[in-house]
Amino acid sequence: MNYLESLPKQKRPVRVVQFGEGNFLRAFVDYMLDIANEKGVFDGSVAIVKPIAFGSLENFHKQNNNYTVVLRGKEQGKTVDEKRVVTCVEQVVDCTQDLEGFLALAELESLRFVVSNTTEAGITLDEQDHFEGLPETYPGKLTKFLYQRYQAFAGAADKGLILLPVELIEHNGKKLRECVLDLIGIWKLPEAFARWVEDACVFCTTLVDRIVTGYPRDKASEICENLGYNDLLLDVCEPFALWVIESEQDISQELPLHKIGLPVVFTDNLKPYRDRKVRVLNGAHTSSVLAAYLCGQSIVRDCMSDPVVGQLFRRVVMEEIVPQVKLPEQEVRQFAQSVFERFENPFIDHALLSISLNSVSKWKARVLPTFLDHYAACGNLPKLITFSFAALLAFYRSSDLRQDGLYAKRKDGTEYVIHDDGSVLAFFAEHSQKDEEAYVTAVAANTDFWGQDLTAYPEFTQTVTRWLRALQADPVQAVKEILK
């Protein structure tokens, strides 16, 4: 018997059913609940449901559902390398093999929360899904689960559940509720059940943020040797975390994680926090990594330590992105500083080429809103964001389209492959041989890319063309020039 299997556990009522046994939920939700138990503000355990046939729960059984979370990264200027043994998981159920055990969880008097992370595709309506046996989709399984609870407690209003989906889609809670209500109609379940779902259950919309790298295959032996025991469920993540929960009812007293300093925000409007994450964290990547790659960089951490490229990352965020986020400026600046520390994480090699995937749609979603807000507020082009558009065009400028992507070379001769939607790559391959101004005009005027014609902004085409030429001639010198 190993250390984790023999570890004593305090018996607590199951208050959370969790759809998904993956790395993220274990290093994020369960990690926080474990701390809340220790601090005396929660007193509940978790029952994990494996929602699909793929995978195995064998390692959970071997370790009595205990595992170690290792936090590695930078926080407030210091390197963090800390561990916590998480013991709040009481049981694990494979609903594809144990339908009875799965439905029994719905009848637990103590149950109050349902958490899920079933991938972005998990919250979708399949009108062909079936009620008999085990439904195929997550909304189908949840609907059957809720109906089991509704029947077990005769529709009691105080037996409704709080739903906390963390799938990375906008309005995840609202979309999950819509799927459940649609299935109730399709399956012709009682109208009284539909009213119970609407009135007694709370579907929260959430935003989560933490980089979880999971089981560290190349470092597991070293980490376990330092721990002094073997852990088949070892879960590695960064120190930073954020959980924003939007709900129509105030649930903060039932899940008081914020009271013990955990990074949980309860709000009735999640949008500013989503904008902050998308614009600052994701926007920093999209507005800087393509120029950084052209300058010879390969991973994010090295970009931050480079005296030229690192300045580009920091200044585009602080000077142009932060002022356009609709939250208190000091709060956004503090978030930005935490983002820079995350980029400097000495334990994560985040490849620029990985971030470059689908950069056209990413620029539209992550950077264009800041461009538009800046222009509306200031009446001029945001210098560094406009430069980032030129860097995108420089990065994508190639006519060598092959089956596996668009091939290009940077100034030092390094060949790289651009991955994007096929029609996007075909467009760039077609127009890349034009002269710079014609190329810029074609791309900027493509309303399918940007939702509008960017050439309509005065001086935009000319400015992008000038910086495109500079980037093609000498990327490092171009970045130095834009930073003057």
Q: Could you characterize what this model shows?
A:
This protein is of the alpha/beta class. The chain has 2 domains: 3-267, Rossmann fold (3-Layer(aba) Sandwich); 271-482, Orthogonal Bundle (N-(1-d-carboxylethyl)-l-norvaline Dehydrogenase, domain 2). The chain has 21 helices and 16 strands. The chain has helices at residues 3-6, 23-27, 29-39, 58-62, 99-105, 138-152, 172-186, 191-200, 220-227, 271-294, 300-305, 309-321, 329-343, 352-355, 359-378, 383-395, 422-431, 436-444, 447-450, 460-473, 475-482, and strands at residues 14-19, 45-50, 67-75, 78-86, 89-94, 113-116, 162-165, 202-203, 205-209, 212-214, 235-237, 242-246, 264-267, 400-402, 405-409, 415-418. Strands 5-2-1-6-7-8 form a 6-stranded parallel beta sheet, sandwiched between helices. Strands 4-3-11-10 form a 4-stranded mixed beta sheet. Helix 6 links the parallel strand 6 and strand 7 (162-165). Helix 5 (99-105) packs across helix 6 (138-152) and helix 6 crosses helix 7. The protein is globular, with a radius of gyration of 25 Å. The N and C termini lie far apart (63 Å). The mean pLDDT is 96.
